[in-house]
Structures are given as structure tokens and as C-alpha cells.
Specification:
Rossmann fold, seven-stranded parallel sheet, five-stranded parallel sheet, 12 strands, binds NADP nicotinamide-adenine-dinucleotide phosphate, binds 2-keto-D-gluconic acid
């Protein structure tokens, strides 16, 4: 069945995606909703665009939500499914870029890349050598969330000479890595922890004080998942107390706000939610988002529906 109507662009969208929707469709922006809400049959959004129950309820003809991003915790999925609204996301096309970012953060924290750069720029090398750092090769890295991205992280860690173990809710039959039954069990065994689970209620504060304490004063936490997955005040406190060795973060509880305490710590590397932010990956994500939208408008199908639609 074909569908016709307007496409609501929920910001923030990249300029390229915003413009591409405008070139292909009758685009509606939030400022026009009072008069145009009844025309909207589709939403295009990104991980930072809230698509809540109120917005869904305000769009009586809405049939599809196309998310630019693999994580879709920005969308009230139960509210959408209750109305029979289809939801798509962008799995798979960003695994390499996001996995690279995890490795970049782990290496940057362990080898103190950012602090060493500041040391050179500040002229402090003239007064003596930079302190020794920790090697990543030979270390045990735990991955919380051994899915598409987690497995891409794992193969890269193996190439670096690390041992990998993991925690998911379900043990995987076909991977060569040790399984831990809980995040705390994994953290207690690991030198470093990489977190790459979806956001949402099920994973809120999955990485709590107990997990951080199990990781310990020599441990490093890398979070490329969602800020909500880590108890952020507990993380700040653990770093301040020296109960955690360091952290590499791409995501935060209240983006783009970052706790000021973290910005003064040399054992912490902070990125502004850029894990998928390469030219080639963002082009692939944009193309897949637009393909999902075009496919649904043409015949009601999606290229990459969210898993809940298959249940
Ligand atoms: P995926 O293939 O669905 O993998 C998710 C993994 O997490 C699965 O192995 C799943 O295994 C595990 N998991 C889910 N809920 C869990 C829980 N409550 N406890 C423990 N493990 C749990 O997803 P993906 O494509 O790898 O993406 C993962 C997430 O990364 C996205 O949802 C997004 O939030 C985040 N991400 C962030 C960026 C960024 O820019 N920083 C970019 C892309 C993605 P089980 O089902 O067996 O538990
Ligand atoms: C964002 C992400 O979607 O895929 C995800 O879940 O968090 C990112 O890739 C992207 O930054 C903006 O749309």
C-alpha cells in the first residue's frame, strides 16, 4: 500500500539529512506543527530528537518513524507500536566507525595521549620526561553488549593482543570469548570495560557504583553506548576518590552538558558523541534512513525495522 503525505523533520538533523528530506518530500518542521500536524505521515529523527507520546498523539496520520541512528531510545516505541506506527533505525552501517572510537578512547586513556599532547604543547617536556603509561596489549577487556558493534570492538581488541570477555543477557554460542553472568562479574575480572548496550529503561545505570568498584583503581571504563547506561554521579565520585583508574566517554547523561569535574581530570578523555561521525558512515546512515522512508511510502515495508516490529 502506498502512502502520501508530509514528512516531519525532528531536530537535530544533520544539514545534509535535513536538506535531503526537503528536496524529496513536502517537509514540515516543528514550528509548523499547529497548522500542518494533520498532513504528517512520516517522521525523520536522530538519536537526540525526542519523539515522545505527546508528539505521536499530535500526528493523527503518522505511519512511520525513520531514525538516523542504530539506538532508538529517543522514541517512545510502545506509544508508536500501540498505534501501529512502523519504526526503522540504521543497524550495521556504523559498526566500524563506532568500534574505532571505542579503541581510540581506550588507547587514549591507557596511553595518556591527550595529556601527553598537552604536555608537549605546554612546553613541559623541556623540564623532563612524561610519566610512563599502561599498555593495552596483554590486557583483559570486558565488553558489555557483544552485539554488532561489540563484536567489531572485540575483533579489533584481539588484533591489539588483548583477551576479550563479555556480558550480554544471553550467552552466545558462536563466539570465542569467555562469558560473565553479570556486569560486576565481568568488571571484577577485566582490566578495562567497554560499554555498548542500547539505552532505555532496561539498561539505565547498569554500570553502577558496584560495577565501577569491581573494575577498581587500575580499571578503565569506556562508554560509547548511552549516557543513561552509566550512573554518572557514581562515575564522577569513583574517579574523584581514585576508586576507578580512568574513563573514555563519548556519551553523557544530559548531552551536551558534561560534568565540570570530568573536564579537569587527566585520566579522562571526553568526546562529544561522535562515535559514528565519519564522512563515509554518516553518508551510509543517511542513505539507509532515506531508503527506509522511501520504502515505507512506496509499499509500507522497511529495510531495517527495529527488532520490536519482528516480535
Ligand atoms: P545490538 O547489535 O543490538 O547489540 C546490543 C547488545 O547489547 C546485544 O549483544 C545485547 O545482548 C546486549 N544487551 C542488550 N540489553 C542488555 C542488558 N540489559 N544487559 C546486558 N546486555 C544487554 O546493537 P548495536 O548495533 O551493537 O548498538 C548498540 C548500542 O550502541 C546502540 O543501541 C546505541 O545506543 C549505541 N551506539 C552509540 C553510538 C554513539 O554514537 N556513541 C553509535 C552507535 C550506537 P542480549 O540481548 O543478549 O542482552
Ligand atoms: C547518532 C548514535 O545517531 O547510532 C546511534 O545510536 O548514537 C549515533 O550514531 C548520530 O550521532 C546522529 O544521528
Amino acid at each position: 500500500m502506498t502512502h502520501s503525505g508530509s514528512v516531519l523533520r525532528v531536530p537535530p538533523l544533520s544539514p545534509q539529512l535535513h536538506d535531503a528530506v526537503g528536496e524529496r518530500y513536502d517537509a514540515v518542521d516543528p514550528a509548523d506543527l499547529d497548522t500542518r500536524g494533520g498532513d504528517v505521515v512520516a517522521i525523520v529523527c536522530s538519536n537526540a530528537s525526542p519523539v515522545d507520546a505527546d508528539l505521536i498523539a499530535a500526528l493523527p496520520r503518522l505511519g512511520v518513524i525513520a531514525n538516523h541512528g542504530v539506538g532508538y531510545d529517543n522514541i517512545d516505541v510502545p506509544a508508536a507500536l500501540a498505534r501501529g506506527i512502523a519504526v526503522s533505525h540504521t543497524p550495521g552501517v556504523l559498526d566500524d566507525a563506532v568500534a574505532e572510537t571505542a579503541l581510540a578512547l581506550l588507547l587514549a586513556v591507557r596511553r595518556q595521549v591527550v595529556a601527553a599532547d598537552r604536555f608537549v604543547r605546554d612546553g613541559r617536556w623541556l623540564d623532563g620526561s612524561f610519566p610512563l603509561t599502561d599498555q593495552v596489549a596483554g590486557s583483559l577487556v570486558g565488553i558489555i553488549g557483544l552485539g554488532r558493534i561489540g563484536q567489531a570492538v572485540a575483533t579489533r581488541l584481539e588484533a591489539l593482543g588483548c583477551t576479550v570477555s563479555y556480558h550480554n543477557r544471553h550467552r552466545l554460542a558462536d563466539v570465542p570469548y569467555d562469558y560473565a553472568a553479570s556486569p560486576a562479574e565481568l568488571a571484577a575480572a577485566a582490566d578495562s570495560l567497554v560499554v555498548v548496550v542500547p539505552g532505555g529503561d532496561d539498561t539505565t545505570a547498569l554500570i553502577d557504583r558496584a560495577v565501577l568498584d569491581a573494575l577498581g583503581p587500575d580499571g578503565v571504563l569506556v562508554n560509547i553506548a548511552r549516557g543513561s547506561v552509566v550512573d554518572q554521579p557514581a562515575l564522577v565520585a569513583a574517579l574523584q576518590d581514585g576508586r576507578l583508574g580512568g574513563a573514555g566517554l563519548d556519551v553523557y547523561a544530559d548531552e551536551p552538558r558534561v560534568p565540570e569535574e570530568l573536564t579537569t581530570m587527566d585520566n579522562v578523555v571526553l568526546l562529544p558523541h561522535v562515535a559514528s561521525g565519519t564522512h563515509v558512515t554518516r553518508a551510509a546512515m543517511r542513505a539507509l534512513t532515506l531508503d527506509n522512508l522511501a520504502s515505507w511510502l512506496a509499499d509500507g515495508t522497511l529495510r531495517t525495522p527495529i527488532p520490536e516490529l519482528a516480535q
